């Protein structure tokens, strides 16, 4: 997907910008420290020359020489600092452009993903399962849970490789032509636990223990969901789920639902936990 590739490249560029900003800060500090160190050294030399030389003319020349060196260092230091400031300004401008690209990409991703469902735990009929066969499995599943979906409602269905190696079958991404058809399936997805293998075209020995239907989240929300689940485990939250393009957290029954739509929301939640 073009937006996914653009998003990945943009994220890589932002990481490079962050690293460059840190490097610029380090260089700025090192130059400043170097200047102070050399200034102290030259001041000491100035005193030594003044003490050891009895001739006023030699003393004056020595001081003038050291003073000129000191002035050169100051000019060099100021020029370097100015160059670094200019570079940081350029980096900041690039960073803002990257942010603008991200802001543009996210709505496109959201629009594209809003027609998708993700089906996990669906056994494969054969090793080289065709898109047509995958679509047939989806239709069988939707019929088994009571959702009225026809082949004309589906644009395409295909398997996707898991990020981590697993013995479970690859997940299916089912892209609908109309969002209403997708919503009909989502409304009945809890019934997947009652689906029998024979309803999908498999023998009764086939296991459907992990069969589930989920919304197919854009990459940024997938990452946020991963981090939210991690937060849930570490802070003894009972619930974490997805609703209307938001990650929802709830400590326990009856507690207020916390909605997360971006990483900053989770960062703020972490900050509140640490300060309380």
From TrEMBL:
This is FP protein C-terminal domain-containing protein. It holds the Pfam family Baculo_FP_2nd. Residues 40-54 have a biased composition (Polar residues). InterPro entries: FP_C. Residues 220-269 form the FP protein C-terminal domain. Residues 31-55 are annotated as: Disordered.
């Amino acid at each position: 997907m073009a937006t996914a590739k653009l998003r990945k490249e943009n994220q890589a560029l932002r990481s490079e910008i962050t690293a460059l900003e840190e490097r610029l800060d380090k260089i700025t500090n090192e130059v400043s420290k170097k200047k102070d160190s050399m200034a102290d050294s030259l001041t000491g030399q100035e005193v030594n020359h003044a003490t050891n030389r009895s001739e006023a003319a030699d003393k004056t020349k020595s001081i003038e020489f050291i003073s000129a060196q000191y002035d050169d260092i100051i000019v060099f230091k100021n020029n370097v600092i100015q160059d670094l400031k200019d570079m940081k300004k350029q980096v900041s401008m690039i960073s803002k452009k990257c942010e603008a690209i991200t802001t543009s990409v996210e709505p496109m991703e959201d629009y594209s993903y809003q027609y998708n469902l993700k089906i996990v735990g669906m056994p494969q009929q054969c090793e080289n399962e065709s898109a047509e066969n995958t679509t047939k499995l989806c239709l069988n599943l939707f019929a088994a849970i009571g959702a009225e979906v026809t082949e004309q409602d589906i644009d395409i269905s295909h398997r996707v490789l898991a990020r981590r190696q697993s013995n479970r079958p690859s997940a299916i991404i089912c892209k609908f032509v109309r969002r209403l058809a997708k919503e009909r399936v989502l409304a009945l997805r809890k019934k997947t636990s009652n689906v029998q293998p024979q309803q999908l075209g498999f023998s009764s020995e086939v296991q459907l223990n992990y069969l589930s239907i989920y919304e197919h989240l854009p990459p940024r929300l997938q990452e946020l969901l991963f981090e939210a689940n991690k937060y849930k485990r570490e802070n003894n939250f009972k619930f974490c789920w997805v609703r209307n393009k938001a990650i929802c957290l709830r400590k326990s029954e009856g507690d207020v639902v916390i909605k997360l739509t971006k990483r900053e929301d989770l960062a703020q939640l972490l900050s509140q936990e640490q300060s309380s």
